[in-house]
Design goal:
Blueprint lengths: L10 E11 L2 E11 L6 E11 L10 E6 L9 E8 L6
């Protein structure tokens, strides 16, 4: 057996769309897939429930998240880092 038998976990970059509770956020990430018949690119999105241990993310932030063990009924990802903070509106 090889030394590194553990699988690598998914790392995704997305945007915070909601602060859904204490230490919880919703992150949306967009991706494109080709239409099976017409081959035009279709824009899709996925909303993920993410664990934010330090409550430091705000709506509009661009964050990097990683897959982790199940933390609750819906949360399967955690915040790794904040890539860009949301612009402050006056």
């Amino acid at each position: 057996m090889s030394e590194n038998t553990r699988k690598s976990r998914k790392v995704i970059v997305g945007e915070v769309t909601s602060r859904s509770g204490d230490k919880s956020i919703k992150v949306t990430y967009f991706y494109k897939i080709p239409h099976p018949q017409y081959h035009k690119e279709i824009r899709r999105k996925t909303v993920l429930h993410v664990h934010d241990e330090k409550n430091e993310c705000a709506v509009g932030d661009k964050v990097e998240i990683a897959e982790t063990r199940p933390l609750s009924k819906l949360k399967r990802f955690r915040v790794v880092s904040i890539i860009a903070k949301a612009p402050v509106s006056a």
